[in-house]
């Protein structure tokens, strides 16, 4: 079983060249997100992670919002590369938005003041695990994805567009779709420099 899991881990790669096609029905993507949110661990079993799945026009709207926000701050003579990046994300099939509910985290901080400074860090760690679980599960279904971070630039517009609670803090955006090209080559630093084992 461990080998099967590691095989899936190797399959998960950052893929930017995505199409508006999916290898699985939307219901399967919903199932992946539901199961991942339910079973990904969190500190003190806080279950503070939140996810929003955007398909169709909602997916397109997210990248329209992001494009307009960036257009207002990126110099015009440098915007062409930004526009190309935005067009690439919009060309995908959908996007998953990852949030943390700060109300849950703040309640834990009040309940356990000894650890109050650590709860935001622990929440980020749990969010990272959730992103990894979903990303790997999507890869197993033949879908490519990448992880983006245009927060906090787009936070207010995202909350307003989809009527999300003020306490939901945006963590990351994951456009996904059917890959139109394989991922690029990846270099690995020597594991001897990254792992130490003592027996």
From TrEMBL:
<dbReference type="Pfam" id="PF00881">
    <property type="entry name" value="Nitroreductase"/>
</dbReference>
<dbReference type="InterPro" id="IPR000415">
    <property type="entry name" value="Nitroreductase-like"/>
</dbReference>
<dbReference type="InterPro" id="IPR033877">
    <property type="entry name" value="Frm2/Hbn1"/>
</dbReference>
<protein>
    <submittedName>
        <fullName>Nitroreductase family protein</fullName>
    </submittedName>
</protein>
<feature type="domain" description="Nitroreductase">
    <location>
        <begin position="10"/>
        <end position="178"/>
    </location>
</feature>
<dbReference type="InterPro" id="IPR029479">
    <property type="entry name" value="Nitroreductase"/>
</dbReference>
